[in-house]
Amino acid sequence: MAAVQQVTVLGSTGSIGTQTLDVLALHPERYRVFALTAGSQWTLLAEQCLRWQPRYAVLADEQAAESLRGHLRAAGSQTEVLAGPQAQCQVAAADAVDTVVAAIVGAAGVRPTLAAVDAGKRILLANKEALVVTGALFMDAVKASGAELIPVDSEHSAIFQCLPIGAQRMQGVSRLLLTASGGPFRTLDADALARVTPEQAVQHPNWCMGPKISVDSATLMNKGLELIEACWLFDVTPAQVEVVVHPQSVLHSMVEYDDGSVLAQLGTPDMRTPIACALAWPERIRSGAERLDFTRLTGLHFEAPDEARFPCLRLAREAMQAGGVATAVLNAANEEAVAAFLDRRLDFNGIPAVVEAVLEQTATPRCPDVEAVMAVDALARDVARTLIGERVGAC
Ligand code: NAD
Ligand code: MG
Asked: Does residue 395 have a pLDDT over 80?
């Protein structure tokens, strides 16, 4: 087995971050925590610091960092507390770090994740938005630095596991079949969708996730972001990715080969499985997830997604086909629309409507660097906020 791995967890207080720490806790002989980072949740980060004694803890929010610093000092902790986005990059790229778990939500994760990529780390990618926003720039940076990119998203982990190890990974692959649970509103009609609440949207039937990805799962934007993620990770076109709705979330995605063979990965819906898989790959370690009991499965159901009721999937596919920074615009508009929905400033069907309108109103050129992409991201957010304000005014 390899030497002890030093791990930075970006977004350690979130759903993926806490589950990552749960898996690390099962393997103290393999992993040490170098740094933990979060946005503003300093009380949970304080608990994590006292448990894990990392070298650094970072909060994006300066005030929260001050509170954490005082708390840890009083508890006699040696952990150094840093603040601000630049510090998140610093602990992702530090020489001592082997593995970075990219688990910040949204485009806020772009720069820290890219810092880890540029430093040639082993990156466990949960933060799909980072790849959706920067696309080709992200993958070029991976090639240039020799970073190792391993998916954590359950669907991409499944595909990754169904491909052979080695340089010829995609040889003979005809299609990737991305499964989707369909979310909590799979069977609702458009009128009923207009009335759903944030509380209903974050109640995912199979997975316990952060609020943003839960809403994305309900609109099917999550599957759209994952389609884009799959295109970059596995170097395929949108036409080579088919989305299949599978409400039980037992089969986590499939690879179809030219000879007609289809390989699938199965397991209980528990993110600790793909997290453990990514941490130890190509070795296998315990994750703590419940085992699949085939005798208790009551049937696996599959159906096509309904893009009329859930237009976000189509919008994401079209953005990927359009190229340039269209996927960054899609993501920025979606982040703003989801935040407005969670804040009750936008109805559920307003999310795809805002995303589509922002894509129509924003130029999506090819951008030479991340600065230029983030400038377009900021512009798209301005357009989205204006449109959301107008929709509220029209209600
Ligand atoms: P979450 O909301 O539970 O956690 C997000 C984490 O990011 C928190 O630690 C938060 O403090 C941190 N954060 C938020 N804003 C920040 C900022 N500006 N700067 C620094 N840190 C910030 O989200 P999650 O459900 O854990 O999802 C994280 C990522 O993983 C998302 O990109 C999501 O799409 C992806 N993902 C999640 C799941 C899941 O089951 N939760 C599954 C697959 C992929
Ligand atoms: Mg997923």
From this structure: no
